[in-house]
Amino acid sequence: xxxxxxxxxxxxxxxxxxxxxxxxxxxxxxxxxxxxxxxxxxxxxxxxxxxxxxx
Length: 55
Fold this sequence. Notes:
mainly alpha
């Protein structure tokens, strides 16, 4: 049998000064997402009205 190597794993500390925060967890992220959603809905509605008028 082969002899097991005595290996030690070094504990490297990861710099955690600023962890990732999801945009949906902050008030400005929620505001931006709602503005985008409302803008897309209005864009679809205006496009539908324009298509119906220009028939």
